Amino acid sequence: MATNDVAKASIPELISGLVGDAKDMAAGHASRARNEIKEEFNGLKNYLMMVLVSIGLGIMGAILLSHAFALGLAELGLPLWASYLIAAAIFVGIGVLLIKKMPGNKDHID
């Protein structure tokens, strides 16, 4: 605004000052919103990275566990192929049971 004294300012100066202030407020709000969204996406990226690493380690652990189980059965005197077949059947059965326990109504899953 060209005049600091509001009582002496003309109507066009008041409107110009109001529009300028509104622009400044909108620009500041947009900048803060943009920074907040950037921070949220960085947090989401870090979270998803940790989830993917955890899933990868879990899969690797399950593979090693199934090998150890099959080799343990082989040490009990079963043929190696039968040991791996039994281990695979048990782990597939556990997976099927877990899938069946999932909720049937997926409308409320966010």
Written account of the structure:
The chain has about 110 residues and is mainly alpha-helical. It has one domain (about 5-110). It has two helices and no strands. It has helices at about 10-75, 80-100. Helix 1 (about 10-75) runs antiparallel to helix 2 (about 80-100). It is rod-shaped. It starts with 10 loop residues before the first helix and ends in a 10-residue tail after the last helix.
Name the descriptors:
110 residues, mainly alpha, rod-shaped
Write the layout of secondary structure elements.
Blueprint: H1 11-75, H2 80-100
Helix pairs in contact: 1-2
Would you summarize the structure shown here?
With 110 residues, the protein is mainly α. The protein is built from 2 helices and no strands.
The overall pLDDT average reads 87
Portion of residues within helices: over 70%
Q: What coarse outline follows from CA principal-axis ratios?
A: rod-shaped
Structural class: mainly alpha
Quaternary structure of the protein: single chain
> What is the makeup of the main sheet?
none
Q: Uncertain regions: pLDDT < 50 for 5+ in a row?
A: none
Strand content: under 5%
Backbone CA Rg: 32 Å
- Our count of helices gives 2
Instruction: Supply the number of structural domains.
Output: 1
Order of secondary-structure elements: HH
Strand tally, please? 0
Termini gap: 49 Å
